[in-house]
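Q&A log
Question type: sequence-to-structure
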Amino acid sequence: GPNGSGKTTLLRMLIGELEPDSGEVRRGTNVTVAYYDQQREQLDPERTVFDTIGDGHDTVIVNGESQHVHGYLRNFLFPPERAASPVKALSGGERNRLLLARLFTRPANLLVLDEPTNDLDIETLELLEAMLTDWPGTLLLVSHDRAFIDHVVTSTLVFEGEGRVQEYVGGYTDWRRQSHHAVPAKPQVSTPSRPAPAATDVQRPASNRKPSYREQRELEELPARIEAMEREQEQLTGAIAAPGFYKETPETIHRTLARVAALEQELLDAYARWDELDSKSS
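Response status: OK
Response body:
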């Protein structure tokens, strides 16, 4: 869903950090949660990388198995000599890797991640994908990274506006394909009280009237428009994921994030229009 639609609020209600305005949240008695919010996670700058993970021990328990801290840190691209460095000496990318390494040492069977790919370099992103693929528990994830969602999740909850949250099997690409085919049914859901004759009048042109010349041209041009928007979206997502993005001026950061949010809505509108025009020509 778009920024401000309530994704983080939902996560915080599910894990008990916020209470719902109405209704209730029922949690399993044996659920143990590990919650990761990159903006809120903190590291002690004076501690070494080794101590941050080992916390006074030489071994850690990960996915129920004991591992030596040095061996575990190698998985996160920290050689032994770097493991002896203080946190304050780490680069931004190394700090992100250390945060993730610490996350997976927490005893949990429910992992909750809020925008975990922000500011990650390619190596760390690939590492996170591999760790989550092997994660034996349940994962709840908020992300705008389409490729990351496709690689990691098995089910997607989409905030569709007006308080509607719809579940789709698969990742982002699966949702886009399913929602693309489901678009014609939406007017019937949003106007259930409309009189039957009016509904019949609305449906008849959609099934009988052929597209005009202008609509046919629009239909032919839509794939190229969508492809261009997706290319721009990928470029902006890559820029946001770069380690130095949040060192830019506030105006640049705001403009980039606003454009990403606008592109999400423009793509939804374009696919809806494509489905509408395609149904006329078929």
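Response note: Residues 181-208 have pLDDT under 50 and may be disordered.
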